[in-house]
Amino acid sequence: MNFYKTIIFFKIVKLIITKILKLSIKIIINFYRIFISPLIFNNNCRYYPSCSKYALLAIEKYGIFLGLRMILVRILKCHPFGNNGGVDYP
């Protein structure tokens, strides 16, 4: 009986940690979108949705780890020698 309580406890802890990480990443991305991005760029993103919106969508749809991997790939594709951009949804 005690073994099952331990398993349930660790599942709850994992769920709480995942939600906290997801929320903190979303807060950082939204802070960037509101305060930093308007100062640096003039809406010259070659992709739709923008990388920050793509990041929010990817984390919401695929979770933290796969979402962060998709964000990294998307940011690495966004360089002057890359393709012309376009529509790219997670």
UniProtKB/TrEMBL annotation:
<dbReference type="Pfam" id="PF01809">
    <property type="entry name" value="YidD"/>
</dbReference>
<dbReference type="InterPro" id="IPR002696">
    <property type="entry name" value="Membr_insert_effic_factor_YidD"/>
</dbReference>
<keyword id="KW-0472">Membrane</keyword>
<dbReference type="GO" id="GO:0005886">
    <property type="term" value="C:plasma membrane"/>
</dbReference>
<keyword id="KW-1003">Cell membrane</keyword>
<comment type="function">
    <text>Could be involved in insertion of integral membrane proteins into the membrane.</text>
</comment>
<comment type="similarity">
    <text>Belongs to the UPF0161 family.</text>
</comment>
<protein>
    <recommendedName>
        <fullName>Putative membrane protein insertion efficiency factor</fullName>
    </recommendedName>
</protein>
